[in-house]
Design goal:
The structure is a homodimer. Chain A has 15 helices and two strands. By secondary structure, chain A is mainly α. In chain A, strands 1-2 form a two-stranded antiparallel sheet.
């Protein structure tokens, strides 16, 4: 039974449905100390953009969102598994303003509860096997391994002197964008979409994911502190090799490049001074506009992929507006 | 095409075939730093008992071992994933006499390469979907989550005063025995065995796995240092709550129980003295024979499960001799 366009659920409604299923997703076994951290991280909140994309893509292709619920759960559990392990690696004390799992229960439990979440991911993913979507298992695995690769690249970059723009884009593609793309593809496959359309849905999500991450890099430097969830300038303080920093190294002349590198490593000045010095260099090099141009390039590519899906426009409006609303106008 | 009993491969031959496939199992992606540790741990050696059990079970049920090769690879990769993460948690410097992954490449890489191995496990497991063995995914997942639960119990026990015998058996069942049982079940399912026979194969492996772990506890205290791979007395030095220790606490009178607890926590004596003091108490309480009796109980249960499988005896001889040869006569 195909869903009519006017029967499609909006973002908020899909989120609500997802959250009510997520609440019941963890079936406690023994010992409960393995399961408490799983429940904890899954209930920490967040926009739930990935599962919503899976559910919305399923409805875009004409089947009710329920058909993609197992995949939506699998993806959100996988995403939170990766957060739990990334937080250990980054030594992060907080996640969404709350103590991280390794802070609360110790590193060993965070490793092991994360592992259990990965097994739980496949528990939900395997529920779809009976529907005949064998491809969905293979594409999910391909995405999952890329998330690991992206995180490894990110860690490697920290210890390296030179990182190319291509390498940086590859890293954020793998670490962040691919899972967003895969969410859309899983939703498409759940609805029985053809391989080509499923691939376009993936392209839409992946390109959008890169644009979104570049926006995140921009907001970290130029965002409105009142609206941006994190501390503005955090990447600069940490000396993180963001798109802005790598772009500045690329376009600066040799003396300015050396100056930027030196400031970025820190020195005899306060955090606020460091942020200001780096922002001044970024301004002199027009980094904000250069980054926006790159971000827009990926955003436009995502739009082209969505346009190319062989469906009437009224079926695409939910996902189109989700993408539009995620891009900040003020930048 | 059913395999005749005389065409079945022996243990050494199955190991050789498995090792040649294992060599090609890791398809390197980028960055290679994620994949090197995977290759490293997979090539560290070991008896490969789990994959051999899967392949042998497949042939026992009449199909050539190749039918179970993907499952054998999945299981061995999963087992080594769990070793890689356990070694972090146990802070272990060595694995099979070589540096552990976290010692060689750091904790973060060991977490992440382990995660990638878990994804790789499912890559191989999903190759079997096309054969129609949907059950195999569900039973594998049930085993995998128990391995996580068992490891969490093991960690919990370290910090606890009281651990019951039942809890200890449950812990080693989940942490060690279930994956051995699952190896046999996966082999059985690959050969198209019925659910009941597959379950008996699982029971054979699980009971044997518990017997084997109890033997390991025994060997750690009473083994011949020349034959036992690890340092004899290691569990006593570490203050590990083994079956022997818990049994001693159970059968000792109150003063002796307190004395044993005190010695086990360590004190003003050398490691050699600690080992001797504990062994003296074990001897006075007849712990060796009590543990052997328990070990034999599980060993006999494993034999009963194997006997109950509806196949002629000549098909069972490979697995029966594998089990027999794994039990040390001298104990």
């Amino acid at each position: 039974m195909k869903l009519a366009a006017e029967q499609m659920h909006g973002i908020d409604s899909l989120r609500e449905e997802f959250l009510s299923d997520l609440k019941l997703a963890v079936d406690y076994g023994e010992p409960i100390s393995l399961y408490e951290p799983i429940e904890y991280i899954l209930q920490l909140g967040g926009k739930r953009i990935r599962p919503i994309c899976a559910l919305a893509a399923c409805e875009m292709f004409g089947l009710p969102y329920e058909k993609a619920m197992n995949q939506a759960l699998a993806i959100e559990i996988f995403h939170n598994f990766s957060l739990m392990h990334d937080d250990i690696m980054d030594n992060a004390p907080l996640r969404r303003g709350q103590a991280t799992v390794h802070e609360k229960w110790g590193v060993n439990t965070a490793i092991l509860s994360g592992d259990a979440m990965l097994v739980l991911t496949y528990h939900y993913l395997h529920k779809i096997v009976n529907t005949g979507s064998l491809n969905a298992l293979a594409t999910f695995n391909a995405a999952a391994i890329q998330v690991c690769e992206g995180q490894q690249m990110d860690m490697e970059f920290e210890g390296r002197d030179e990182v190319s723009m291509d390498e940086y884009i590859t890293m954020i593609r793998k670490k962040t964008a691919v899972l967003l793309g895969e969410s859309l593809r899983q939703g498409a496959l759940a609805a029985g979409a053809g391989i080509e359309d499923a691939h376009l849905a993936y392209d839409f999500g992946t390109n959008f994911g890169i644009a979104f991450q570049l926006q995140d890099d921009l907001l970290d430097a130029f965002g409105d502190p009142k609206k941006f969830g994190k501390k503005v300038g955090g990447d600069i303080i940490e000396g993180k090799k963001t798109f802005l920093y790598l772009k500045a190294l690329q376009v600066a002349d040799s003396p300015l490049r050396e100056e930027l590198k030196k400031i970025y490593q820190g020195g005899d000045f306060s955090e606020a001074e460091k942020i200001q010095k780096v922002l001044d260099i970024y301004s002199s090099l027009n980094i904000k506009d250069l980054t926006k141009a790159e971000m827009n390039r990926y955003y436009i590519s995502s739009g082209i992929a969505l346009n190319s899906i062989d469906l009437p426009e009224d079926r695409k409006r939910i996902l189109r507006s989700l993408a539009e609303h995620s891009m900040v106008r003020e930048l």
